[in-house]
Structure prediction request, 122 residues.
Amino acid sequence: MDDNWINLKNLQSDGQTGITADIDLPGNSPWFSGHFPGFPILPGIAHLSIAAHAIRESEKRKGRNLAVSEIKKVRFRKMVAPGGILKIEAAPDRDHANHFLFTITADGENASRGTIVMREIR
Prediction:
């Protein structure tokens, strides 16, 4: 998916324990186009794309070029409508290399969570 559909703001990483960013997702975002007419909600694939993008951008700052290898244990908990205030938090799993646990909140409530497994690419 084209990353210019996602505008991360205030991307921060402490290098060890986690990544945080605000997500600017205006109501006219292409993500909402056709999903669903008259009742737009953010599709699940957008949640995954947001999480992967935040992880890739954070790791790029450390000189690592990563790509998604696997997605595991994803739970979608809340529908996200246009104009919501979104935040992503992700952290490396201490027990599994290149596994990142993520949570996306919408208006302060858990919208989705899961694990994204990344692999290094050259």
About this structure: The mean pLDDT is 90. Helices lie at 44-60. Residues 44-60 form the longest helix (17 residues).
